[in-house]
Inverse folding.
């Protein structure tokens, strides 16, 4: 930016008009991000009036013009930058030729102008890279959120199926036993007692399974571990079918071949097949 420097003793003192033009050359920088080209043009015009009309003292560096030129390089398109750059070079050459006319002064001014332009382009590249990184991070966060929502939806569907299996099996057996109970009371009291025992056992088993599942779902803190039990598998089929027989259904169970370990999910699936078949 223009500033007043000491003048030689044989020159008249600096006027208030020179101070005013110095201040006026700085003020447009307030709007440099909104209209960088217009601000640069205004600074060059004020600087020309300052030198030509007022014969103000020179400055080692045209700070205001360099800042405006930096902003043009930072924000404007290629076409605008080329046009402004050519116009600025012409203005700098004219100003230096008017003031000193030395090649050294011209080269120095062109060098600092090129440095301001290079810094502007470097900052533009850095901002573009930062924006790309932020956009990529936002995209990954959005993808992770969608994946988490889909995983939660799949888990809710699985839990709903689990609860449906537990309740439908238990309720179907309890209904069969309850309907057979009055008949058994009249014909075979011992079977009626077994039916009522089966209703109670089935209800307790269903409640235990639901309590375990809901306890896991309601664990909010990592240090709270809900009581868990293994998923039912093939070894529990005998007891399951015994309860089904107690409801009056004729079922048979036969296992052939060597016993070998199966994945827990597969054993749980096998365990759910008989309850579904018995409740149809």
């Amino acid at each position: 930016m223009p500033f007043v420097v000491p003048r030689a003793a044989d020159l008249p003192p600096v006027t208030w008009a020179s101070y005013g033009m110095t201040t006026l050359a700085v003020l447009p920088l307030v709007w440099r991000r909104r209209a960088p080209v217009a601000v640069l043009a205004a600074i060059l015009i004020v600087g020309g009036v300052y030198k030509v009309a007022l014969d103000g003292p020179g400055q080692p560096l045209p700070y205001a013009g360099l800042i405006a030129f930096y902003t043009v390089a930072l924000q404007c398109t290629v076409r605008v930058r080329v046009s402004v750059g050519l116009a600025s070079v012409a203005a700098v050459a004219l100003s230096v030729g008017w003031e000193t006319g030395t090649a050294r002064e011209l080269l120095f001014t062109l060098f600092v102008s090129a440095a301001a332009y290079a810094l502007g382009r470097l900052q533009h590249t850095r901002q573009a890279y930062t924006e790309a990184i932020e956009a990529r991070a936002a995209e990954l966060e959005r993808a992770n959120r969608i994946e988490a929502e889909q995983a939660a939806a799949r888990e809710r569907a699985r839990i709903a199926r689990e609860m449906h299996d537990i309740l439908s099996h238990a309720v179907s057996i309890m209904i069969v036993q309850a309907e057979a109970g009055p008949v058994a009371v009249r014909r075979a009291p011992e079977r009626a007692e077994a039916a009522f025992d089966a209703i109670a056992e089935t209800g307790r088993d269903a409640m235990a399974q639901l309590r375990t599942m809901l306890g896991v779902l309601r664990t909010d803190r990592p240090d709270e571990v809900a009581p868990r039990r293994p998923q039912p598998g093939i070894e529990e089929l005998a007891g399951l079918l015994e309860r089904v027989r107690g409801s009056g259904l004729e079922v048979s169970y036969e296992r052939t071949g060597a016993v070998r370990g199966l994945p827990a999910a597969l054993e749980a699936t096998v365990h759910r097949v008989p309850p579904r078949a018995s409740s149809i």
